[in-house]
Amino acid sequence: MPADSRRINGPEKSISPYAFSKPCKDIKITEPSLQRKDGRNPDNIRPIFLKTGLITQAQGSAYIEQDGTKVICSVYGPRAVIRKEEFSMQGQLTCDFKFTTFSCHNRRQYQQDAEEKDFSVQLLEALEPAVLLHKFPKAQVNIMVTVLQNDGSVLAASVTCASVALADAGIEMYDLVIGSSARISGATILMDPCATEEYSDKDSAHVNNGSVTVGLMPSLNQISAVTSKGELEFEHLNKAMKHCVSMCVDLYPVCQQALAVAMETRINADPKT
Amino acid sequence: MAEIHLSDAEKTFIIHGVQDNLREDGRGCEDYRHLEIETGLVSNTSGSAKIRLANTEILVGVKAELGEPYPEKPDKGRLEFFVDCSANATPEFEGRGGEELATELSSMLARAYQCPSCLDLRKLSVVEGKQCWIIYVDVLVLEYGGNLFDAASIAVKAALFNTSIPTLTVSHDEGHVEIDLSDDPYDVQRIEVTAAPCIVTLSKLGHSHVVDASSKEEACCLARLMLGVTEKGTVTAMKKEGSGSLDTSSVEDMLQTGRRVGQALNKSLMEVLMSDDKVGKKQHLTGFLR
Amino acid sequence: MADDSRLARPLEYYRKFIQNDVRPDERSLEEFRPTVLNIGCIGTAEGSALVKLGTTSVICGVKAEIAAPKTESPKKGYIVPNVELGPMCCSTFRPGPPGDQAQYLSVFTNQVIQHSKCLDLEELCILPGKYVWTLYCDMVCLNYDGNVGDACVLALLTALQNTYLPTVTWNEDSECLETSDSTKIRLNVHSQPVSSTFSIFDNHILLVDPTKEEEDLSTGQLTVVTADEAICLVKKPGGSPLNDRQLAECINRAFSRSKEVVRLIHETLNSVER
């Protein structure tokens, strides 16, 4: 890689120390009755911590923590579009998704890589259906998502986090978008997988090994995003999606409560408004 | 997606037609447009295919090169997709206009081919941890007439089917590894693509959905579901695209249609490719000028 | 209304407060904002710390990797600090490569590390001439509300004190490295650099720990970095001139701040270990 004159540069090549550690045994997650490494049942999700308004510089912001997965999101706008030729009567929504360099097991690069670009697009497509774009013509709303720590189900957490941040920013929406993900391994469906449980293409070539992520607008019962990876049979895919949808519905009150709490504190702090 | 400006009345006409299973060009909801495939068109590639789906025209060139495998996958070769939306295809692609669509298409193709079961990457390994075949798949969009993703995936599958990689013999000699290329130009390996997926895009129009949307239909459609479907009917990748959302029950319907259509598509594609292959070099190539 | 005059005529608004030796956020002129430390918050990094200086927040993650040393210094490891001021932390930053300010801060933190000698780079050696540690210290600003420099230095120092490296040994028989995750070694931090920033208001009034608003209104800035009992770095990038009495005042304040911060880090580290 060419040296970046805008940053402090380290050595040209470096490798993770964990490349030399003895390979640990693959975790078997196929048996349905088996408890997961962190003691959860297949259907259990990790405890969620959700808080809004942490980034005071932004119009709206949210922070979500699902055990080891930590995502922070800020929303700026509606503000003027920088390039004039992008004029449109519909408001624009942009998404910028970034892993911090230290957020994953292996160090990430500063520039957005293909995966981050892909996530940016998926996030945008998950949120666009929920936002009333015609309410801010000629302007744009920018959503910045930063993953502080990645322990699986990042896209799902980002979707939830970003939609709560949009709501916190006072952007008009039809509904919140709640994200959820599942790992499919044979007949087992593991909800809210952590990093070691997530699907990777290194896994065995058997059919029905993959993952699904769903973004749902619960009160409209509309799916705004759905992606899958890995070769899956139709029945398993459908079942996993149903599980995801019901998980989204379960998470809905959590997000509503976080927003209600934020609103209460805002009213108490400034009784005039 | 390339833009076409339609009036509201035109959109209503198309959507109402689809509800009665009658589309603007006379097709049913699950019918593809006329499809032409030619393989082996570009002589300086390892494999190539040109596809024409009504007005959508795509050329795919495959190049096999030797390279180092990734350290985390020492026993596997790899596929790399590169998509170029040329400005010839539609004026919207001028400048950097097609870039976003191009990355989207290449990431969808990469995701659909990511499963170990659809293409055995282990066969592309030459010397474990040292050398492997890297298959560069270059997709060139020549003309845009709707349903780019399906057309591109069909062309990729055809081009991979057409690809021949020179046979290499590896000999170990006192710790040294020697790689020999066979002198016979016909001594080649083929890539097994029977299990490879084709992308089926289902566009939601009104309350129903259609496959292989034309660019006019795409202009009326807010939400699409893209599925990578294999011959067995399994789904290797799924993605919702577009600014709209889908009802939970309609996703299930669309999945079902996608599987049915995808299986049929894969089957007829393989039949055509096989019969073409039997004719071999004798077949008459039409090429680009017709 | 108070809010309107703050937006329309911020300078006059501030002057009214400063005449009475107080700032709009109820701080006195030489008071820092409440400082909060959260240590070890990122599990995927070898060391990490989150610093909140009032509402300004910076998170620092240290990621350790193995690299070949430079030929002229076969035993020295690398330390690579970088500050990210992404589009997330403030409306004025755009996505893309780091801007002027981020570059300035990266260089600044790098100078602090080098001049304070807080790390002995030779302790980062695994096998002389072959393998050394590289510590990538990335400071990501989450919320930009002034004085990010101080927050970055504090986050960096705290993260380094919380950095645990896995043991990597050279196996002579198999001629390769072996990593053991079970035993981890804590990084030795030899000195404790603390940065204190002063903003110059109306050419002569000094404000400690400026907010973003105060930074925008200031006519100059001064940063003093102390390492334990000594001054390690003084930066005054232009702006209004200061006399020697004012400079001495700043340095004194910087030393007392240094003591506060070192105590805070100590307390936080202890509470985590317990």
Folded structure, characterized:
The complex is a heterotrimer of chains A (273), B (290) and C (274). Chain A is 24% helix and 28% strand. Chain A has 3 helices and 10 strands, in the order βββββαβαββββα. The mean pLDDT of chain A is 87. Chain B is built from 5 helices and 15 strands. The model of chain B has no long low-confidence stretch (mean pLDDT 88). Chain B has helices spanning 8-19, 99-112, 148-162, 215-220, 248-279, and strands at 35-39, 47-53, 56-67, 78-85, 125-127, 131-143, 164-166, 168-173, 176-181, 188-190, 198-205, 208-211, 224-229, 235-241, 246-247. In chain B, helix 3 packs parallel to helix 5. In chain B, strands 1, 2, 3, 4, 5 and 6 form a 6-stranded mixed sheet that branches. A 4-stranded antiparallel sheet of chain B has the order 12-11-13-14, with helices on both faces. A two-stranded antiparallel sheet of chain B has the order 7-10. Chain B is α+β, with helices and mostly antiparallel strands and 290 residues long. The longest helix of chain B has 32 residues, at 248-279. By secondary structure, chain C is an alpha+beta fold. Chain C is 31% helix and 34% strand. Chain C has helices at 2-8, 10-19, 100-116, 148-161, 212-217, 244-273; strands at residues 35-39, 47-53, 56-67, 78-84, 125-127, 131-143, 164-171, 176-186, 193-201, 205-208, 220-227, 230-235. In chain C, the strands form 3 sheets. In chain C, strands 1, 2, 3, 4, 5 and 6 form a 6-stranded mixed sheet that branches. A 4-stranded antiparallel sheet of chain C has the order 10-9-11-12, sandwiched between helices. In chain C, strand 1 (35-39) and strand 2 form a beta hairpin. In chain C, helix 1 packs across helix 2 and helix 3 packs across helix 4. The mean pLDDT of chain C is 92. Classes of the chains: A alpha+beta (273), B alpha+beta (290), C alpha+beta (274). Chains in contact: A-B, A-C. Chains A and C meet through strand 1, strand 4 and strand 6 of A and strand 3, strand 4, helix 3, strand 6 and strand 7 of C. Strand 10 (222-232) of chain A pairs antiparallel with strand 15 (246-247) of chain B, so a sheet runs across the interface.
Helices, strands, pairings?
The complex is a heterotrimer of chains A (273), B (290) and C (274).
Chain A: E1 14-15, E2 48-52, E3 60-66, E4 69-80, E5 92-99, H1 114-127, E6 139-149, H2 154-168, E7 178-185, E8 188-191, E9 209-217, E10 222-232, H3 234-269
Parallel strand pairs in A: 5-6
Antiparallel strand pairs in A: 2-3, 3-4, 4-6, 7-8, 7-9, 9-10
Helix pairs in contact in A: 1-2
Chain B: H1 8-19, E1 35-39, E2 47-53, E3 56-67, E4 78-85, H2 99-112, E5 125-127, E6 131-143, H3 148-162, E7 164-166, E8 168-173, E9 176-181, E10 188-190, E11 198-205, E12 208-211, H4 215-220, E13 224-229, E14 235-241, E15 246-247, H5 248-279
Parallel strand pairs in B: 4-6
Antiparallel strand pairs in B: 1-2, 2-3, 3-6, 5-6, 7-10, 8-9, 11-12, 11-13, 13-14
Chain C: H1 2-8, H2 10-19, E1 35-39, E2 47-53, E3 56-67, E4 78-84, H3 100-116, E5 125-127, E6 131-143, H4 148-161, E7 164-171, E8 176-186, E9 193-201, E10 205-208, H5 212-217, E11 220-227, E12 230-235, H6 244-273
Parallel strand pairs in C: 4-6
Antiparallel strand pairs in C: 1-2, 2-3, 3-6, 5-6, 7-8, 9-10, 9-11, 11-12
